[in-house]
Design goal:
Blueprint lengths: L2 H9 L2 H16 L4 H20 L2 H7 L2 H23 L2 H22 L9 H24 L1
Helix pairs in contact: 2-3, 2-7, 3-5, 3-6, 3-7, 4-5, 5-6, 6-7
């Protein structure tokens, strides 16, 4: 991958960072944080769908049902968590998203060896997944405490 593609990819985490800051600020100052949490959940769901989508074609070509399940299940689960955030506590849904990012991290390592062989792509996906999951975790902790 060229560096410009990697930098552009990392720029995609900026909205998560800003929303997490808004949640921390709101929680610290008694300002409601449900709206930024909902936006963070929606944005994280979009990232999960994009990252999960990388498993779709290789899974179908290889006839790998686990890989197709990752491609379909991760975005579907993130949608369920988004809906549950409006019924219960958004912080629980944020923690659920952290788990989905963890599953994607592991699935990338196990199920995408040829895609991850692209120069710089594996490190990018791993760092992005860890960063996005960490921001969700920080946002959830800020809302809980």
């Amino acid at each position: 991958m060229q560096k410009i593609h990697i930098y552009g990819g990392y720029a995609g985490i900026l909205p998560s960072f800003l929303l997490t800051l808004a949640i921390i600020y709101g929680a610290a100052n008694g300002i409601p944080t449900d709206a930024p949490a909902a936006i963070l959940l929606a944005y994280s769901g979009m990232i999960i769908a994009f990252f999960g989508g990388a498993h779709w074609l290789p899974g179908i070509k290889a006839g790998n049902a686990r890989q197709v399940a990752v491609a379909m299940g991760a975005p579907a689960l993130s949608l369920v968590l988004f809906i549950l955030a409006f019924l219960f506590w958004p912080s629980v849904s944020l923690l659920g998203m952290v788990l989905i990012f963890g599953v994607l991290y592991r699935a990338d390592a196990v199920l995408l060896p040829e895609a991850l062989a692209i120069d710089g792509y594996q490190a990018f996906r791993q760092r992005f997944t860890i960063g996005a999951g960490a921001l969700l975790l920080v946002a959830a902790i800020a809302m809980i405490f």
